[in-house]
Amino acid sequence: MNTEKDPILITFKVLRRAVGWLGITLPFVLSIGLCIINCCCIQDSISQYYYTRMGSYLTGTLCAVGLFLFAYKGYPGENDNKWCNFAAVCAFGVAFIPMNLYPKDISCPDCIVFFSQGLDGFRVMHFISAALFFTILAYISYFIFTKSNKSIEEQGKKKLARNRVYKTCGIIISICILILLVYNIVCKVKTDFKINTLTFWMETFMLWAFGTSWLVKGEGIKILND
Length: 226
Hints:
Blueprint (H helix, E strand, L loop, with lengths): L6 H31 L17 H17 L8 H17 L23 H25 L7 H4 L1 H33 L8 H20 L9
Helix pairs in contact: 1-2, 1-7, 2-3, 3-4, 4-6, 4-7, 6-7
């Protein structure tokens, strides 16, 4: 069968591109959309947009990504589906277990339409879900997407170029996770220390890296296609 017309492969590619574009565009849509609606202040984190008028879009996008990851099965023997299912569960966790938000925690209160002051355990579960979500995406990009049943000599220049993109994206996500980990540890030690929007930009870089990796995997960047 001509692989270019194989409906299964076409579905794989469409799902990969859809997941990639959702990840890449999420920070833009949240910040620009909120600016158009009523507030041009960038929030301290992506998760904080849940409490703005863009909260429905954030939740909807996370659910869409989760559903796409559940639907995506990958190629036989690659174990894509197991890792993607795990990532999907984490995406739903981020969407349906929002972090608690207190007035003292935010630097731009004008954009917030409501607050949540529930159990601290939910805040921990939200952060764990987010950390696992990005960690799994880094693993998929660096280790799963770079797999091949061909030797390095047989893979070709474009496959090797794609592998470099996958590994770079995985490294970027890992570095951003480490930066946020160190930042949160420092914030625990020095309670008066805070860098506004640092979390937002680290999460944005991770979403861009994640989206780029999936976009390349879905053959959405023509110059890297075989």
